[in-house]
Amino acid sequence: MTPDIRPFDAALGAEVLGVDLSKALDDETFAAIENAWNEHSVLLFREQSIDEARHLAFSRRFGELETHVLDQYLHPEHPEILIVSNVMDGDRHVGIYDAGRYWHTDLSYMAAPSRGSLLYAIEVPHGEDGEPLGDTLFASTSAAYDALSGSMKGRIADLRAEFSLANRHAKLVADGDADAELEDRHHEKAPPVTHPIARTHPVTGRKSIYVNEGQTARILGLPGDEARDLLEALCAHCARPEFVYRHKWRVGDLLMWDNIPTQHLAVRDYALPRRRYLHRTTLKGAPPR
Question: Annotated catalytic, 175?
Fold first, then answer.
């Protein structure tokens, strides 16, 4: 059966109907999903009931999986699954608990950043009014690039930026999160890297703005003040409302996104005893061009 792809009323994203991810997909159905992913950048599958094996099997259809550099948050039996959660085991965080507090794209601080991510909701917190908490915002950085003036496109065409996991965690520590201090092994796995600011998608050929609030440390080749002002301006431009889709989570949602033409931000408007628990797989990518 050909899945029903329904685009969101937003600059990116679509819901996929008529697909049960607990079952193996035929090649025709998978091809339709993959084409929709490349076109819409974010895909939503509601009311899914999948175990770790099915999550991994569906993810592997899109490419090779990687294990996250923050290895203390990996699933104990399935290291390709990253736990995203505020749940505690004694005094230990069982998953990434800040949930992506700053605008970012997954693993942009690596030489070969992640191509995509697939996040499955197992527990979702709710407020007193019954509304879900912990929304995730997605911005289309390709739509943001298209909206740039010709002069700005020319200005950033050959510029590169430095990305750093340490930069993100320094921001967290500065914001009062003492638990965000990195260990030496994390610095060794993820030294600073540089990427082009104007990135080209390997499948669609669309260009996007490839800087973000959380993991971009600085723009290279410009005086300090000019570099800082340009980085802030580009980050603010990408987060403009007309480029953003806001996802309200439900248990059973599987949301997948393309890390090349998007960035995202998790809203941390919940705390224990309200529990949030999700599983994420991450697709290996290639050096940006």
Answer: no
User: Which homologous superfamily is 4-283 in?
Assistant: Clavaminate synthase-like (3.60.130.10)
Given 40, 68, 75, 104, which residue is catalytic? 104
Q: Among 40, 264, 276, 279, which one carries the catalytic annotation?
A: 264
Q: Are strands 262-266 and 136-140 parallel, antiparallel or unpaired?
A: antiparallel
Q: What is the pTM assigned to this prediction?
A: 0.92
280 part of the active site: yes
The tokens of 149 are what?
């003036």
**Residue 169 CB neighbours (<10 A):** 21
For the chain, the structural domain boundaries read: 4-283
Q: Which of 40, 55, 78, 106 is catalytic?
A: 106
Residue 229 designated active-site: no
40 flagged as catalytic: no
To which H or E segment does residue 85 belong?
strand 81-85
Quote the distance between the C-alpha of residue 200 and its chain's center.
18
Q: Model confidence over 17-38: pLDDT tens digits?
A: 999 999 999 999 999 999 999 9
